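COMPLEX REQUEST
Ligand: magnesium ion
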Amino acid sequence: MKLTIRKKLFWGMTGLIMLFVALSQFLNSQFLEDYYVSEKKKQLLDIYGDINNIYQGDPETISLELEKLELITGIHIVIFNSNQKPKYRLRRIPEEPPLDFYTVPPPQLTDLQDSNPPPPSPERKQGFEKKLIQMNEDQLKEGKVVINLSKDPRIQTYFISLTTKLNNGDYLILSTPFASISESVQIANRFFLFTGLLIFIIGSIVIYFLAKKLTMPILKLNEIAHRMAKLDFSQKYQVESTDEVGQLGESINSLSTQLHAAISELTEANQKLLKDIERERRIDEMRREFISSVSHELKTPISLIQGYAEGLKENVNEDEENKNFYCDVIVDEANKMGKLVGELLDLSQIEAGTFKLDKSNFEISRLVAKVMEKYKPIFLEKELNCTLQEEPGLIVSADRFRTEQIIVNYLNNAINHVDQQKIITISIKSVQNKARVSVYNSGRPISPELLDKIWESFYKVDKARTRAYGGTGLGLSIVRAIQEMDNNRYGVLNRDGGVEFWFELDIAA
Ligand SMILES: Nc1ncnc2c1ncn2[C@@H]1O[C@H](COP(=O)(O)OP(=O)(O)OP(=O)(O)O)[C@@H](O)[C@H]1O
Ligand SMILES: [Mg+2]
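STATUS: Structure written out below.
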């Protein structure tokens, strides 16, 4: 069984109450009686003192004062004169000779007692007090005050009594029954047992709820702390008091807020770091891919150049035609390498952003026409049907050199991929405030999943075919880099019986 604070509090407090009640019972039974006796003795001595004070002057007044004292204190007062004849006694007994001080009629109580049991005879009653005087004769003569605990055999009752000789020689006997004391103690103990039980029950209920109220905030704090351990900071402690628990709640709240902020920051930083790492990894991968692609692209021309150069060296004596062929291959391969290096430089320059587009306004159709003019011999040689569909007078704001580079790239690709129909169409039109240049060639469509890939460096759909025309796979990535720098769109569409590459330019204001 887990001993919670609540249970500890409850059992501790109820135990304390029980201990308190038991201890009170014990102390009462052991000492209350003695204490009461000593208190009674003190009271007798006090009354004796009082009587000493009032015992002068008018007998009538003394009698009244004595009676008053007797009624207030409940102490039985009897006075004998020096001849041991009764002088004062509150309860008048008919046969008794009239007392010197006696004036007050007998109390009604006497009537009640008259019937049952019968009133004690005066001789016997006086006998008890007389006996006290005789018993203590020697001490009384010395003027001492004697206190006795003695039994009145007549009524079988114990009395505590004080006997002394007053200044004028009268004897004073004060007595109070002892039975009432022990009974009082018993009653008090019984009552205290009852009140103790009641206190115990009420106390237990109060403590139960008090413990609950005290431990509730602790349980709540515990729950919040548990949640915090699981990185849930949504719950906050409702501070309702300024005591230690309230202060602890405030501390936990601020701890939660600060932890939450710190952990959020950390998570954010971590996510950023992960993104950075991912980007680095991708860049690294790209770099490795790039290097392997470049070395792969260079390997073929280099080995060709090597082979043909060696061949040339070994066959120097052979015919001129053979030599020329060897030289042509070497020059051709060197050109390819030159082209590759040039394109790589271009691409790295554009991608690094080290150069700016040199924008100017010019008529786009003129530029296209100029390029087409340059390609005329090739069109003728390859018997290609190249046409221009233009929207005349469209002035664009663009980098003339880079725009030509794009057109040349598209046109080269079109020439390299055109099919037997040999149709190439270049069109210029304005689309949504942009000048759109498209280059269409009849031929096989590009499979849709590769439409994005062809814009990556060194990506070639058909490697054998690309090799045949000496492509490096960099042309379209240069187009992409230029267009991204110019913040203009570009793309490719599979058309009926052919492929159309397009790009857009800003129309001059
Ligand atoms: N008009 C086209 N029709 C079909 N496929 C094309 C066309 N243009 C490009 N491609 C495909 O896209 C690939 C990438 O073209 P890109 O221009 O980037 O490289 P390349 O033409 O092979 O080499 P480079 O342009 O550097 O000489 C090509 O290898 C080819 O497979
Ligand atoms: Mg190309």
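REMARKS: The longest helix spans residues 244-314. Residues 409, 412-413, 471, 475 surround magnesium ion (ligand 2) (CB under 6 Å).
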